[in-house]
Each structure stands twice: as C-alpha cells, then as structure tokens.
Amino acid sequence: MVYDQFTATRRRVLASGAAVGTALVAGCIGGDEGPEDGLLYTQEVNPEGDFDPIISNDAYSAQVIHQVYDGLYEYDYDLELQPKIAAGDPEEERDGERYIIEIVEDAEFHNGDPVTADDVVHSFTAPIEEDTDNRPEFDFIDVDGTEPVDEHTVQIDLEHPYGAFTTLTVATYIVNESVRTDDRDAYNTNPVGCGPFTFEDWTSDEYVELERWDEYWGDPQPELESVRFEAAEDDAGRVSQILAGDTDAIATVPPEDWDQIEGEEGIEVHRTESPSYQYVAFNCNDGETADPDVRRGIAHAFSMSEFVDANLGESATPMETPIPPIVDDLGWDFSIEEEPPGYDPDEAAALLEEGLDDPDDWNPTVIVPPDDVRIALGEVIVSRLDELGYDAEVQSLDFATLTDTYISGDAEDYEMYILGWTGGPDPDVYFYNLFHEENAGVTQGHFYEGSDDFHDNILEARETADQDDRRELYTDVINEIIEEVPVMPAYSEHNTIATQEYVQGKQPHPNVSYNPELVSDENNVSLEE
C-alpha cells in the first residue's frame, strides 16, 4: 500500500542521501524573509525521482506522491482507514475473496479527466502486470477477476482471502490510466494525479515544486499555494537551516539537537509514534553469519536498549520483535515466550568461538546507509567485535549502492546490514515482505531458510481472515525469529518535524510517507504572520 502507500518494499527503507543547498531559495517560498504562501520543506533525502505510485519505491518520493495523488482510502492520525475516492466501506463477498467498492462521482484528475472504476482497476493490477517492486503488496489479487462493474463501481477479486486487504491494500493511490499507459516514462516524472497539489517542476537531486490545485475536487481545499521539497544530507545541515530561518520545516529532528531546537524561540517541534522498524539483518545465506550461534554471539555482544537510550532517547522506542509497538497495540497484543539475546560478553565470546569455522580469519563487514544513527549502531557492533578479537568494519554506502549490495547474499559484500522499514497496521507487511522466501533478493537480503513451518506459517497467516488464527501463526514466527536471530530488531523511530512558529496546522502523521501531511480532515497547513 507504502511504501507506501504504507508498506515499503525494498527501497522503502528509511535512509539518508544527497544534500542540496536550501539557502539559495530562502525567502522565495517561506524561508528567512518570513512566511508567504508557499512552504519550503527540507527532507532527509532527495526523492529517487519515481513519482508514479505504481513503481515508486522510496519514502521520500512517496511524500511528494501523497500531495499529488489521493488514495482510494487514506489513513487518519489513528491509523484507521477513511474513504477518500471510495464512497464508503468495501462490501465483502465470496468469504473474503471479492470486494465491491463504489467511488465518488465528482473526483477528477488534474487534467480534467474524471476518476473512474477503470483507473481504480489499473492502480491495483498494474503492479502485478508490470512486475514492479510493489508487486508483493498486490500479488494476491486476481487480475482477471478485477474489473469495473460500472463507471463508479469496481470489483476486486482475490486469489485467496487476505486478512490485511481492508487495512492495508485499499490505501492505494489512484493513477490516471489513459495518461499513464500512453507514456509511462513521461508519467513517472510528470504525473497527473487527483490530489490537492499539481506537480510543477523537478530537478534531480535538487528540488520538487508543487502548486495548489485551485479546482481540487475534495475537502478541505488546501491553504498553501505551493510546496517546495528539498533535502539536506546530514542532520547538522537540516538543523542549521531551521535555526537560521532558511527553511520553513525540517523532517526528523536529530535526538541530540532536540532540546536546542525545542528551546529556540520561534521554532516548534512535533513528534508522533510511527510504525517504523529499524533492524540489523544477518547474511543467513553465505559466510559465518549463516550459523545461528554466530548470530546469537553478535546479539549478545552489545546492548541494543542501551544504544537506543544513548543515541535516540525519547525519539525512539527499543524493539524486541519485528512488530513495532504501535502495530502490536492495534489489537494484536502478541504474547512472546522466547527471551531476546541480552548483553552478555562472555556468552558472546563463547558462541562466536564455537560457531565460527575459522575464528582467526573472520573479518565481517557491516553495511549501512549514510545515516548518523545507523552508522553509530554499526560502529558499536564493530567496536564490540573488535574487543572480542575480530577485525570487523563498517561501510557506509549511498542508498542506491546499498540496496543493490544487500540483496546479493554474498558474504564478501556483507555479513550484516542495517536498514529500516515503514509498514502499516498489520503484521503481514513486516513478515511477508521481510521474511518470506518469495521476497528473498527483492525486499530482503538475509535469505533466511527457517524451519519447516516458518514460511508456511507466514503464508497461511497472510491467507487467513480470522485475526485470532493469524495471531497464533505469527506468534510462532516471532518466537523463531527471536531464537534463531536472522535479524536483530533495533528500534521504532518516532516521526518528528520542526517548524517555524508561523507554520500553522502541522502535525507529523504516523505514516512517514504521508509527511508532511498538509491537507486532511484533521489539519490544513497554512503560513501566518
């Protein structure tokens, strides 16, 4: 859905990337000359440049997409889905294998085309037919049975019941089928959506400019006249820009700068819990970390909770399972029997000595994105391994290189990698995308084979509608992950935004791909003196 829609596929991982100089445009849209009618928003990373939601696969492009497109349904601030282009709730038929959804009659695209059932069908089936990176979010849909009933009614057939269909999949952005299929490449960089802002200009690694659509069909009408997205590669760059008044808002307030920014006159800091999941994954396919004792030894070598407390403080919550706390609290309440590996250097030394084939010749590599916190986590792991006598190293790779590297499964490339995932209010988006064998080499790089039931349980839970049955299956999966340690869950980072005080109506959304949430039933951002 993310990536998001809500689920992230392999590039929907959160990372840091290239920098731009926002001072060049300060005062043109907000900035140090005070508020005008446009918002300058500084992201952590430049969008990859895919603005077609059928193929877009990173959170930063998704943040632009959210302003340009409307979803069939969209999440409110409680992560509950509300109809947007849909006229009401889905009507279930055939024991959860068919859904009938009516759409509103007045929705229009930016070029004046009406939004029809054909557009909805295309938005749900194109990721499968074109085999895009977003296919795992839709591959249970029966393409042949998904069709318009009439101009404003769509029938979506599933190959099997999917428990998360009405909580994840229906939050799909709707594209203009005729314009998109006429020239897919052009549509990707000059999209025609039906959201509150039109796509005006984009220069790779520099900026994206949007303008208010004065004929927006939905409510409320946007207050802002324009939005400009830029990015600052490093935390210090974003902090200096907000403190100097060179930007109206920045994403992700660095934990070490929280007190300074919050105490600065004229600046406000906003925070909300999110369904994000940061983790350390092991190469379970090749190299020494294919042995679970080696993975357990590394997990015992340091304290994840101490690292999170020291480096993130109140900006994140430590995790012991692959399910973010905000998701677990939405009616799942997993009861886990296995105890995660805790800090125990003696046990770490013993397990590594026993598990390694050649302890004297083990030089593991940890690959990480260019993000200060995840670099620091990699350095903690390396430092602890060095203390135990192993010559480990951290490699910080740009995001594109990292995503091409971690799916290789080659121990010469890495034995550990640190990445993150942004998902939705259902465990399926974490387990299926990040652990099931069908996504090996696509949305995961650890290639974990698992027990005889591991992958079957994930798939059965995915194809089951009853939540109690799904909870039981997922509980077995979680216990195996804790015991066998194909990954170490790290932390769930809160969504944070700092704004100049003249930015009104701004609250970060739990779904990072919705931020900055500019126009919704619950807020409407404006700039006021």
From TrEMBL:
Domain Solute-binding protein family positions: 80-440
UniProt keyword list: Signal, Transport
GO biological processes: peptide transport
Molecular function GO terms recorded: peptide transmembrane transporter activity
InterPro entries cross-referenced by the UniProt entry: Peptide/Ni-bd, SBP_5, SBP_5_dom
Gene Ontology CC entries for this record: ATP-binding cassette (ABC) transporter complex; periplasmic space
Phosphoprotein listed as a keyword: no
Sequence similarity: Belongs to the bacterial solute-binding protein 5 family.
Alphabetical list of PANTHER family matching this protein: OLIGOPEPTIDE-BINDING PROTEIN APPA, PERIPLASMIC BINDING COMPONENT OF ABC TRANSPORTER
Protein name: Family 5 extracellular solute-binding protein
